[in-house]
Amino acid sequence: MFRSFGPNEALYIITAVQWTLLLSAIAFAGGAVGGMAIALARVSAIKTLRYAALSFIRVFQGTPLLMQLFLVYFGLSIMGVGINLWVAAAAALTLHASAYLGEIWRGCIEAVPAGQSEASYALGLKYGDRMRYVVLPQAAKISVAPTVGFLVQLIKATSLTSIIGFVELTRAGQIINNATFQPLTVFSLVAAVYFVLCWPLSMWARHLESRFAVATAR
Amino acid sequence: MGYQFNFAPVFNNFDQLLYGALITVQLSFGAILIGLLIAVPCAAAKTAGPAPLRWLVSLYIEVIRNTPFLIQIFFIYFSLPALGIRFDPNTAALVALAVNVGAYATEIVRAGIESINRGQIEAGKALGLKGHQIFRYIIIKPALRTIYPALTSQFIYLMLNSSVVSAISATDLAAAGNNIQSTTFAAFEVYLVITAMYLVLSLGFSGLFSAIGRKAFSYPLAR
């Protein structure tokens, strides 16, 4: 009475990884733009901007991603936009990534020695040039390892969109499991695919981190 | 926007939400306790154990840290019964959360252990302390103090992450929301209130952890 688990079923799961990757890429791109804005607001000279960015981070890091997904999903529907799973999933993950990347990058900007900022100020550089040519390039170097680490977290987080019905790797696994009732095979395969995506990134992040630690050791 | 907000169904069922929040808190503290019981021996094994044991602990950490929590809980709730291991939803949730936080905490505790200066341990040996005394007073106690902030933010993340257990019909706060939402159709209002409740829980956890930290680690540093 159940469909058996064969190569077609395995292939269905493995090809669903493209949606996981695409969603991760969209959320990362959106989160990079939002995160940069949040990070700059967090270190801004304007108090209101600093507090607004801080509240954004507190709310998004202090509530579950699943609830953020539900709120965006149902929020879009009551605004009369109609429910589009791509929009809901991408918007929620972008907000989530903005908060986390914003906080990570704020730390990196603050890790650049204050003397650098002061020197460029003394040389007469305006805010834009100071950030663009002096502070951000140095902060970028520090930020690579934690950003790659966050990318792993983001890829794993896309699995939650399966709960609102977005078909990606996890949802594909559920669909095949419902048809074949081979939970051991199905979820082992799904876990293995995630592992293949995330593990190299984790290793890379750790490698970057140790190289950076050596470079900055005194 | 012509939408009329209706919070009445949420507050009429507020007792269900409070009960759900209680389950969320219980699951979180249960998982923290079991997670620490997993993490301390695993971290000790990873720093000082024999090679096969170190390899096994690394495998556990890498598998958990590089797969989504949702898949872990599906595996425990749906896949393990195929091997004859069956849990009810709330137990499966507790097991999944504990196994998950155990892996992250192992890495944090290991970093703490490695931050202890070798000279400290040698001084302990010179003073004639036994192995378990050295581990308890010279390694774990100062290590815990160093890693306490990282550990507690991991625990808050765990509490927020526990909302995912509603996907296997455990009875936590998020699941209470799903129930109310499915009978009242006031989905946005329900999840808005629940999100606020999670925010209060995370603020509460963070306040509690810093109070515990102040009490437990207020002894002076000898330098």
**Total discrete domains of chain A:** 1
According to CATH, the homologous superfamily of chain B is MetI-like
Q: What oligomeric assembly is this protein in?
A: heterodimer
CATH class of chain A: Mainly Alpha
CATH topology grouping of chain A: MetI-like fold
* Uncertain runs of chain B: none
Helical fraction of chain B equals over 70%
String of helices and strands of chain B: HHHHHHHHH
Short description:
The complex is a heterodimer of chains A (218) and B (223). By secondary structure, chain A is mainly α. Chain A is 81% helix and 0% strand.
Can you describe what's shown?
The complex is a heterodimer of chains A (218) and B (223). By secondary structure, chain A is mostly helical. Chain A has a single domain, classed as MetI-like (MetI-like fold, Orthogonal Bundle), CATH 1.10.3720.10. Chain A contains nine helices and no strands. In chain A, helix 7 runs antiparallel to helix 9. Chain A starts with 6 loop residues before the first helix and ends with a helix. Chain B has 223 residues and is mainly α. Chain B has a single domain (17-216), classed as MetI-like (MetI-like fold). Chain B has helices at 8-12, 14-48, 51-65, 69-79, 89-114, 118-126, 131-161, 173-184, 187-216. In chain B, helix 2 packs across helix 5 (89-114). Chain B is elongated. The A-B interface holds A 59, 62-68, 70-71, 74-75, 77-80, 152, 156-157, 159-160, 162-163, 170, 173-174, 177, 183-184, 186-188, 190-191, 194-195, 198-199, 202 and B 1-3, 62-63, 65-72, 74-75, 78-79, 81-83, 156, 160-161, 163-164, 166-167, 174, 177, 187-188, 191-192, 194-195, 198-199, 202-203.
Give keywords:
heterodimer, A: mainly alpha, MetI-like fold, B: 223 residues, mainly alpha
Give me the secondary-structure topology.
The complex is a heterodimer of chains A (218) and B (223).
Chain A: H1 7-15, H2 17-42, H3 47-61, H4 65-78, H5 85-111, H6 114-122, H7 127-157, H8 169-180, H9 183-216
Chain B: H1 8-12, H2 14-48, H3 51-65, H4 69-79, H5 89-114, H6 118-126, H7 131-161, H8 173-184, H9 187-216
Helix pairs in contact in B: 2-3, 2-5, 2-8, 3-5, 4-5, 5-7, 6-7, 7-9, 8-9
